[in-house]
Amino acid sequence: MQIAMGTRRFALVLLLACLPALACAASVLVAIKGMDFHPSTITVAPGTTVIWTNDDSFAHSTTSDTKLWDSGLLDPGKSFSRTFDKAGTYPYHCAIHSFMTGTVVVK
Ligand SMILES: [Cu+2]
What we know:
- Helices cover about 20% and strands about 40% of the residues.
- The chain has about 110 residues and is an alpha/beta fold.
- The strands form two sheets. A four-stranded mixed β-sheet has the order 2-1-4-6, with no helix packed on it. A four-stranded mixed β-sheet has the order 3-8-7-5, with no helix packed on it.
- Strand 1 and strand 2 (about 35-40) form a beta hairpin.
C-alpha cells in the first residue's frame, strides 16, 4: 500500500513536470509576403519549429546566411519548416531577392 501510494505520487509529479515541456515544443509562423518576411525577426525557445509560408504570388526561399538550411524555391502557398534546438542567432535571406532578410533568435 505504501509503495503504491509512492508510485502514484511519482507518476503525478512526472506528469506535471512534462506538461511545461510539451507547451514549449511550439511552432512559430513566419509569412512571406510583399517581398518581406513577417515578422522579420522572431525570438523563440530552443526546440521551436519555425514554419515559413509563401503568401506572395511568386516564388521565394528561406535560406540560412550560414548554410544551415535552404528551402529551395518555395512556390506560392508552399511552406518550409525547421526546428531550432540550439540557442543562437540565425540570420537568413531569400536566395532570389537578397534584400529580403530575417533573423531567428533562439534563447
Ligand atoms: Cu524572394
